Amino acid sequence: xxxxxxxxxxxxxxxxxxxxxxxxxxxxxxxxxxxxxxxxxxxxxxxxxxxxxxxxxxxxxxxxxxxxxxxxxxxxxxxxxxxxxxxxxxxxxxxxxxxxxxxxxxxxxxxxxxxxxxxxxxxxxxxxxxxxxxxxxxxxxxxxxxxxxxxxxxxxxxxxxxxxxxxxxxxxxxxxxxxxxxxxxxxxxxxxxxxxxxxxxxxxxxxxxxxxxxxxxxxxxxxxxxxxxxxxxxxxxxxxxxxxxxxxxxxxxxxxxxxxxxxxxxxxxxxxxxxxx
Amino acid sequence: xxxxxxxxxxxxxxxxxxxxxxxxxxxxxxxxxxxxxxxxxxxxxxxxxxxxxxxxxxxxxxxxxxxxxxxxxxxxxxxxxx
Lengths: 277, 82
Fold this sequence. Notes:
The structure holds 2 protein chains of 2 kinds. By secondary structure, chain A is α/β, with parallel strands linked by helices. Chain A is built from 6 helices and 13 strands. Chain A has a single domain, classed as Class I glutamine amidotransferase (GATase) domain (Rossmann fold). In chain A, 25% of the residues lie in helices and 22% in strands. Chain B has one domain (2-79): Phosphoribosylformylglycinamidine synthase subunit PurS (Mth169, Chain: A, 2-Layer Sandwich). Helix content of chain B is 34%, strand content 28%. Chain B has helices at 16-27, 51-66; strands at 2-9, 39-45, 72-79. At the A-B interface, helix 3 of A face helix 1 and helix 2 of B.
């Protein structure tokens, strides 16, 4: 498939954000991207606006505060999707198509049971949670992330293992946690399955606590994928550093020209689809 | 029927909101406060259901939306009422 033929749906409901930028960046890389409201996928829109999930090649769930983040971050968005398009989602994922969740979108994927998905493609109950940051408040700053995936994740094909990216954190509920009592076993399984994609590090690449890890996330985990590597959730925002000039330090680190650290994640997903389908 | 749902953090799960409230209360001079636990409460009205069915429905709401079993426990009280 040519990149220009790759169809990307950036899903929105009330309270999502960065969907315009995300569509623009997929288009910048040559893909055919559009915003799609959840109601367009559930048949609750005028006939001419209805869309089918199966007609897309990449599904992105952007950041923001979907449905006000009431109850828990991402919980209402996830519950609405699960109630109405659960079969479509499972078919999409099992077809090997990439699902990309950023920040609030990562929270949605976890609440949906699409990540970490140790018990199947989409588990009935969440297997993890993105809980309130240890600081008790919203954290917003650049974070250093180190790529730790051994090659199974579609979203880091163009990010060599060990490379550090600078990506923008902006979240209150970013602390990934697994059920107490089985946490060590879950972490072991995630490592064995090659599901840990990025971990927070300090400016020298060492695992470090606050503020390098803004949330207190277990094992400094910043991004996970499913076992097949095509569902990917990342807490910091790669779209907020798609271009060099979006990095907060561009004036002293090489100028504004060219692509920023986050662009490789978008490009990786597109190259994966272009080669596979 | 009226249902009261309390969502608690499981024992051992960090409660930053509770800890921050504890800190703030101490700063305000409430030196005898030794701990604060944040709890989320939902009051839900249901119609056309017996108490048993209302409890069952609310339990399903907790599993499907209101609680995440990784960090939450919940308690449901159902009583007659408008």
